[in-house]
């Protein structure tokens, strides 16, 4: 078991970390109101949401913008300016995984969210999460601070969305 200070150490995640980090994010979003509205069935959630994450934020690994805590309990996937989610693949996964009767509303919400992104080049945080057993220890704040320090130093813009009201103060 790691200590609190070890778990707060933020390191770059590599391609070798991808599967483990996606698993951490899946655990972190298990009770997320928006995600579970789209994927209320446990089986659909556990099979579809990892694919959603791979296409929504997975390009972070390719661009050296995936971060994790040294113990793997927290993950942040950042997309650099001019790098976006794989929208075509994401759309196909949502269409396949979201119940047919919810698809129109789900795609409508996703379209509204996408329209709110800044026009100018910006860093986008499609996913940040902490394994539920480690939440409340400042891990999410440490992950944000790590990336924002570098972004602020370059005087660049950062943008994120929150699907859980509990995370707004973060």
Task: Give your account of this protein's structure.
With 170 residues, this protein is α+β, with helices and mostly antiparallel strands. It has one domain: Aminopeptidase (3-Layer(aba) Sandwich), CATH 3.40.630. The chain is 49% helix and 14% strand. It has 8 helices and 5 strands, in the order αβααααββααβαβ. The chain has helices spanning 4-8, 18-28, 33-38, 42-56, 59-62, 87-97, 100-115, 139-153, and strands at 10-12, 66-69, 74-79, 123-130, 158-160. It has a 5-stranded mixed β-sheet with strand order 1-2-3-4-5. The longest helix is centred in the middle third of the chain and has 16 residues, at 100-115. The radius of gyration is 15 Å and the shape is globular. The two termini are 26 Å apart. The relative contact order is 0.19. The model has no long low-confidence stretch (mean pLDDT 88).
Rg from C-alpha positions? 15 Å
Strand order of the largest sheet: 1-2-3-4-5
Instruction: Encode the helix/strand succession as letters.
Output: HEHHHHEEHHEHE
CATH superfamily: Gcn5-related N-acetyltransferase (GNAT)
Major beta-sheet overview: 5 strands, mixed
CATH domain class: Alpha Beta
N-to-C span: 26 Å
- What is the residue-mean pLDDT, rounded to a whole number? 88
- Low-pLDDT runs of 5+ residues are none
Q: How much beta, percentage-wise? A: 5-15%
Assign the CATH topology: Aminopeptidase
Given the C-alpha coordinates, what overall shape results? globular
Residues in helices, as a percent range: 40-55%
Number of strands: 5
Number of domains: 1
Counted by DSSP, the helix tally is 8
The chain-level structural class is alpha+beta
Which architecture name does CATH use?
A: 3-Layer(aba) Sandwich
